[in-house]
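Quick one, T. Sequence first:
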Amino acid sequence: MDFDDNAQLDSSQVDDRRGSGRGGLAVGGGAVGIVGLLIALFFGVDPFSGDGTAPPDPATSAAGDVRTDCRSGADADERTDCRVVGVVNSVQDYWAAEFQEQDRAYRPAKTVLFTSRTTSGCGAATSGVGPFYCPADQQVYLDTDFFRDLSSRFGANGGPFAEAYVIAHEYGHHVQDLLGTTDRVGGDRQGADSASVKLELQADCYAGVWAHHAESTPDERTGRPLLDTVTRADIDDALSAAAAVGDDRIQQGSQGRIDPDTWTHGSSAERERWFTTGHRSGDPAACNTFG
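Structure tokens:
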């Protein structure tokens, strides 16, 4: 994955709270994410105390503020936090254009970067929760140290496009919220055929749809795509990340057995399949996991 070096990043789409100390003690419901509370449940991490989180990685927790440090595509190629800005810009450019074609209004969502813990409209959370989207305030929450966990804890290949998949998945939840799909979950939150699993698999598919268009979606500021290249190796890294956070793989690794009755996100094979469906088709209509 390579950004156009001359592309201008819109850092206003990212709220950089790292080091701000904005934390909390309680948690609310409603958040949806790529792994969510699975990390806490299967790895014994308390996501609300801060215990069990790894120390910050200098490679992913660079000092500074994205508003001043992340200005161009060249910055996105060099720094993880700037890459987050670039991917957020690209994903939202795509969905804004897609919504416009459907005569709908796309409402941009900010990504909140934090370290260790933060507060959200869904309550307070720590890094142990993993990346999540909060429908209550329509924002994505991300501690970039999770990108390291993808490889060290979950066994994914890692790489910049695996990181991009995580972000695009969370924005898939934002799209679901705007379309009213999130409301279909209700109390059906566990089980291999639950609405929760279908929601997560659709977000994987939406991430694949964005990946299909990543090289061709024009930046609304310049008219040129933010991304110059997306390679087959990039897609393989995204697939590896999708498989790594499948319910079955996490359960097998943490408790030595698989229990489909408690699934909330789908199996590794399903997550790979739905990302692939979105990537090959490039069509959000192909992402009808509820069908």
